[in-house]
Amino acid sequence: GQFVRQGDTLLELENSGLRLQTEQMEQQRDLLRVQLRVAAATLDPAKTQAIQIALRELDLQLAALHQRIDDLVLKAPCHGRVIPEPEREFLASQSTSTISPLGGWKRSPLHPENIGASLSEGTSIARIATSDDCVAVAILSQTQIESVQAGQGSARKRDAWPHGTILGTVQEVSVQDVEHVAPQLLNTNGSELPAISFGPNSGQLAEIHYQVRSQLTGLSEGDLSGLSSSLRTGLRGRTWIRAGSQTAAQMTWRWVCQVFQW
Fold first, then answer.
1. Which pTM value belongs to this model?
2. Terminal-to-terminal C-alpha distance of the chain
3. Beta strands of the chain (E only): which ranges?
4. 147 touches 261 (CB < 8 A)
5. For a tag site, which of 3, 122, 178, 221 has the least CB within 10 Å?
């Protein structure tokens, strides 16, 4: 939840292999420079030209290596608030294995206990939120979405902190059905959304669902600063939306749709 400015350092990585390769190539460059001086002193133009070509190629390779080393220092691309990635225990709660790779990171990459741990290429470190607006996303079935409109009040409880309630307002109701949802929301991973458990479409929703975005309200500066502990991305929970009243016919039709899975 810390606020950073564009260019601030987020994380410094170390790649001993890259540094060793750079040192070896720098030694090779120094040797070529000595050979170039000897060739020039002996008035050997053919050898001098060959060494100059080799030096130019080596300088290009060294420049690429130095750029890769510079890229190991991750900097903020813009002003904003640091949003840590979901911790591993929330994403992999369905896994029966409790064994972590030797030297691998735990929880989230930016956690202090990961100093000295190894990261694989492509690991997502964090996100930068350009505003303090906090949004919660709910996935509702086709029968539930009919009563939801923008502007309605909402409330939610997180599974990890069931005693706290966060209020909000419905901001957007999707008009297209959702194709992919976070794995931790599916019933195959201990949640409630019905998912296909086998076949080529395994892991996808078994029924038509829609997405509802709600803007969270009433959050203090302390809540925003504590994003890493209570409002981080990837948490799941339950959402209640204050929908409008329904007639008896509408309630009956909704019940029929739920029973017969229309």
1. 0.51
2. 43
3. 3-4, 9-12, 73-75, 80-84, 126-129, 135-141, 153-158, 165-173, 209-216, 237-241
4. no
5. 122
- Structure tokens belonging to residue 235: 């948490």
Per-residue tens of pLDDT for the chain, all 262 residues:
678 888 888 888 888 888 899 999 999 999 999 999 988 888 888 888 998 999 999 999 999 999 988 888 888 888 887 877 666 554 444 444 444 444 566 777 777 777 777 777 777 777 787 776 778 888 888 777 877 888 888 888 877 677 778 888 888 888 777 877 777 777 777 777 778 777 777 777 778 888 888 888 765 555 555 544 556 666 778 888 887 666 666 666 555 554 444 4
Tokens for 43?
Answer: 């008035």
> 């020039």: which residue's tokens?
40
**Angle at the Cα of 107 from the Cα atoms of 94 and 234, rounded to 5 degrees:** 60
How many helices (H) and strands (E) the chain has is answered by 7, 10
Burial 35-55 (b: 16+ CB within 10 A, else e): bbeebeeeeeeeebeebeeeb
